[in-house]
Write a structure and sequence with these properties.
Strand content of chain B: 5-15%
Helix content of chain A: 25-40%
Strand order of the largest sheet of chain B: 2-1-3-4
Oligomer: heterodimer
Largest interface: A-B, 13 and 12 residues
Distance between the termini of chain B: 28 Å
Radius of gyration of chain A: 28 Å
Number of strands of chain A: 33
Distance between the termini of chain A: 71 Å
Largest sheet of chain B: 4 strands, mixed
Radius of gyration of chain B: 17 Å
Structural class of chain B: alpha+beta
Order of helices and strands of chain B: HHHHEHHEEEH
Largest sheet of chain A: 7 strands, mixed
CATH architecture of the largest domain in chain B: 3-Layer(aba) Sandwich
CATH topology of the largest domain in chain B: Glutaredoxin
Number of helices of chain B: 7
Number of domains of chain B: 2
Strand content of chain A: 15-25%
CATH superfamily of the largest domain in chain B: Glutaredoxin
């Protein structure tokens, strides 16, 4: 520890800290623009100049390391003169038209110029003009003349997002921040540069000119998309969500937010919103009062339960539903005598059901992931599935951790990987088994060697591994590897409530049917909560067939989607940000939130709809007057940590099938902006490169074998369905594999996410 | 695509640096491309970025930072006329005027046949020979008079 003095206050700080860090610890503000605690030091704005005793001239606080006995003056005559001088230079080329700037009112430069700027400018010559850039549908760089070249955006994309998509080109007075040959920025974390930009150069394109910061009400919420549980500051005006910013929490999302979390709110105002209850009468959809629709649904269910039997009713929900919704759904289903309820719609291997000791979870805190020195990531489109967690892992790797990956696609994770095994889906189990053996045999190279040499080993199963038809074996082997290396093991949950669903008991017990069996053995009636059957299920073909064959489909949905073709009654529910509820994140953190805005039209929070349905069905114990009451009944007094357990009986070693190679195998990802109903309807997200129409990716040798050129249209078929898509070459894919996305309307006619698939010339 | 000749030159350059610091060769690589093609197109920058394993934007930053890289075609012979103080005092204005008269182009322009281009340059560190220009950044021509310029252009015309 080192003793220094800032403005007469004595401070103890760590050796190696900078003056600005020490000052912030002591609560002393030093004006700055380019400094950011999460980014490397650039020291190029010079705003943080301070006087240091015995130093001949002012020093930048952000780049000056503390030294024993150092005396710093942040507001002395010399320091303030330097700061005012810098401010005058910064304003030389900065437009002085705050009233028409979108950043006005929340601008660091504006605030700082109040403290350090002159009353009027001494500069009367021409200001430099920098042309606006088009950086894509999310970030507006319309007014680059406002840029003060602090390079925060450049450093963020390079250091945190992992890809240098922006840079500072040209020199001196001509220097400007731009992308390479006018490209867009395609990072899944790009929205953070809007928060980082201290001026109005980079602003939010969807939010541009919508409101002033002081007109907005702020509500806390939690992200409903990936399983991280990022904190959201929801800014609303006139009962509309106008933007979403991160709530800083070092233990969860630090100060970042993925673009999905940031811009998904635009989907709330989609023209596809379902705002009135509707019933299909004689093949025609009619808007009806709530009472009529609810009674129709309840009567239908009661009729079936009394006739064909309650086990003929199945309830499916997405893992983005709140804990309260899932709890009431299963309570109602069990109340009428059906045990068919599930939220794991994309899962295909349910063999651990009943054996699993608790709810599968991350197995550690999110912070632990960042502390790991050896990682094994199995079956994960990490960057797209968990963008902010990927950034945390990227930082760990930057600090010396080794990341290893076993997967069926080799997407660039924008971090150096120690080892990778890219194999076809049916070879993943075999590959893991070999690594488990190699770890046991104390092998010193490859993935086994990397893991064995670590102190803090982390083994993570991604979405792909959990959706895999042999997920149970993958889990057992991965667990075995983690145990053999004294490491931690966990699941990267697919959605916001992947853990919460288990706590809400929204899974079938022994006598009930799971999501896959409910569709494989079609039920006479289905209750869908937030589900788009053809997009959210492991096998869209099967799901749609089951829906079409059913006598009664009750869809609780925020949108008028494809359900209009198979449902009998549509009940408008409030999507996230319009409802209160609770999500349990992958690390088991329980986070409740209130609705940020009122539901649109006649839409109602789903927990209220389910409560009334429960009452109409005369199920006992449905007298809830708030979502908090539901939560308290569901998990109140529950020892959450005790409920989270990844352990499952090790059955893996016994039955490892040899890889089969009959025809081409499908590898499917859920594209980052196709994961749930709200995201699918967010116009700005749908305009990004990540939301492009899915293509059929094959190794170029496979393309040659098929006699197909990349860019040609091909017929892709699976089961009874086929779709026409463009073929594309990806030589990083294993041979014998076809990568086709799921969760997208263009591929909804296809079958299961795994299994054989055929491709032919169209 | 980078030509085999450029790749050979870059490989030779890379030997000067540690194996994990390939981007150290970026300035040389840009120079080789310019020597061969007369200018550096964005595609060339992408190729260099790929070959050296660095971000395209980082190559672009370097290429735009240094004045002597041509970011657009500047003719077979780029005449870079020094316009700094010494040359200016010794008549670089006359040099430019004479070039304009002879070639019909001004600063930043290229003749229609693509043979000559004129750029503005900074001090070449040889003020004793002012006024001066360089040919393709390789050959310095000093103590320029109209006659001497005509003579140089006649030489270049022949090549």
């Amino acid at each position: 520890m080192i003793n220094i003095e800032i403005d007469g206050i004595k401070i103890q700080t760590e050796n190696g800290a900078t003056v600005i860090e020490a000052a912030h610890l002591a609560g002393i503000a030093i004006p700055h623009f380019c400094y950011h605690k999460k980014l490397s030091i650039a020291a190029n704005c010079r705003m943080c100049l301070v006087q240091v005793e015995k130093a001949p001239k002012p020093l930048p606080a952000c780049a000056t390391p503390v030294a024993e006995g150092m005396k710093v003056f942040t507001h002395s005559e010399q320091a303030v003169k330097a700061q005012k001088g810098v401010m005058e230079f910064l304003l030389v080329n900065h437009p002085l038209d705050c009233p028409i700037c979108d950043q006005g009112g929340e601008c660091m430069l504006q605030d700082m110029s109040v403290g350090y700027g002159g009353g009027n400018s001494r500069y009367h010559e021409e200001k430099r003009v920098v042309l606006g850039k088009d950086l894509g549908p999310l970030v507006s760089a319309e007014e680059m003349s406002r840029c003060i070249n602090c390079t925060r955006c450049v450093r963020f994309l390079q250091e945190v997002a992992g890809q240098m998509e922006l840079g500072q080109a040209f020199r001196g007075e001509h220097a400007e921040v731009m992308s390479f040959v006018s490209g867009t920025i395609n990072s899944e974390l790009s929205g953070n540069v809007i928060d980082l930009c201290p001026v109005g150069a980079l602003t939010s394109k969807p939010f541009r000119y919508k409101a002033r910061s002081w007109e907005l009400s702020r509500r806390r919420s939690v992200s409903a998309h990936d399983s991280l549980g990022s904190g959201l500051a929801v800014h609303t005006k006139n009962n509309r969500v106008l933007r979403v910013l991160p709530i800083e929490n070092e233990a969860i999302n630090e100060c970042w937010l993925s673009d999905k979390d940031r811009f998904a709110y635009e989907g709330l105002n989609s023209s596809e919103r379902l705002t009135k209850p509707m019933i299909k009468k004689d093949g025609q959809w009619q808007e009806v009062p709530w009472q009529v629709a609810l009674e129709f649904a309840a009567n239908g269910m009661r009729h079936l339960a009394n006739g064909a039997g309650a086990e003929q009713i199945g309830a499916l929900a997405t893992a983005n539903s709140t804990l309260e919704e899932l709890y009431l759904l299963q309570k109602m289903m069990r109340g009428i005598g059906s045990d068919n309820v599930d939220f794991r719609l994309r899962q295909s291997d349910f063999s651990t059901d009943g054996k699993q000791q608790g709810a599968p979870w991350l197995g550690m805190s999110i912070a632990d992931v960042g502390q790991a020195d050896r990682l094994l990531i199995v079956g994960s489109f990490l960057r797209k599935d968990h963008p902010v967690l990927a950034a945390r892992i990227r930082r760990a790797v930057r600090k010396g951790a080794q990341a290893n990956i076993i997967h069926s696609a080799d997407d660039d994770l924008l971090m150096p990987l120690a080892n990778k095994a890219i194999v076809a889906p049916d070879a993943i189990v075999e590959t893991l088994a070999q690594i488990a053996k190699a770890v046991a045999a104390k092998q010193t190279d490859g993935i086994a060697g990397s893991l064995s040499s670590g102190q803090r080993v982390v083994v993570l199963l991604g979405n792909f591994a959990q959706q895999h038809p042999q997920a149970a074996q993958i889990q057992a082997l991965a667990q075995q590897i983690a145990a053999a290396t004294n490491g931690k093991f966990g699941f990267l949950g697919e959605a916001a409530n992947s853990v919460g669903g288990y706590l809400a008991q929204a899974t079938p017990s022994a006598k009930g049917l799971n999501a896959a069996s409910m569709l494989a053995a079609p039920r006479k009636a289905y209750l869908l909560l937030n589900v788009e059957a053809e997009l959210d299920c492991a096998n869209p073909q099967q799901a749609i067939a089951a829906m079409q064959a059913a006598d009664l489909v009750i869809a609780l949905s925020a949108y008028k989607h494809h359900a209009t073709e198979y449902a009998d009654v549509l009940l408008p529910i409030a999507p996230y940000l319009e409802t209160s509820g609770t999500f349990v994140s992958c690390e088991g953190r329980v986070q409740s939130f209130k609705g940020a805005v009122k539901p649109q039209g006649e839409a109602r929070p789903a927990w209220k709809v389910l409560r009334v349905l429960g009452n109409l069905l005369k199920v006992e114990g449905f007298e809830f007057d708030s979502s908090e009451a539901v939560r308290d009944e569901a998990i109140g007094g529950m020892d959450i940590a005790a409920k989270l357990n990844n352990a499952s009986p090790a059955t893996a070693q016994s039955a490892i099938p040899t890889p089969q190679s009959s025809g081409l195998q499908r590898v499917s990802d859920v594209p980052i902006y196709a994961t749930d109903a709200v995201v699918r309807r967010s116009a700005p997200l749908q305009a990004t490169a990540d939301a492009a129409l899915p293509q059929v990716w094959l190794h170029s040798d496979e393309l040659k074998k098929l006699g197909v050129q990349a860019g040609e249209t091909v017929n892709v078929s699976q089961g009874q369905g086929s779709v026409k898509l463009l073929a594309a070459a990806d030589d990083k894919l294993p041979k014998g594999v076809v990568r086709v996305a799921t969760g997208h309307a263009a591929t909804a006619a296809l079958g299961a996410m795994f299994g054989t698939i055929s491709v032919e010339r169209a | 695509m980078l030509s085999q000749q450029i790749i050979t030159l870059i490989d030779k350059e890379l030997k000067k640096y540690p194996a994990d610091q390939r981007q150290s060769a970026v300035m040389a690589a840009l120079r080789f491309v310019q020597d061969e093609k007369g200018w550096i197109a964005p595609d060339d920058m992408s190729d260099i970025a790929e070959y050296l394993g660095m971000p395209q934007m980082a190559v672009f930053e370097v290429a735009t930072f240094y004045h002597m890289y041509n970011l657009k075609p500047m003719g077979q012979y780029t005449l870079t006329v020094c316009t700094n103080l010494s040359c200016q005092l010794c008549g670089s204005g006359d040099t430019l005027e004479h070039l304009h008269k002879r070639l019909g182009i001004g600063l930043g322009e290229v003749t229609a046949n693509g043979k000559y281009g004129i750029r503005e340059g900074e001090c070449m560190g040889a003020c004793v020979d002012a006024p001066m220009f360089s040919i393709n950044n390789k050959q310095l021509c000093g103590r320029l008079t109209n006659e001497k310029i005509d003579q140089i252009l006649a030489e270049l015309d022949k090549q």
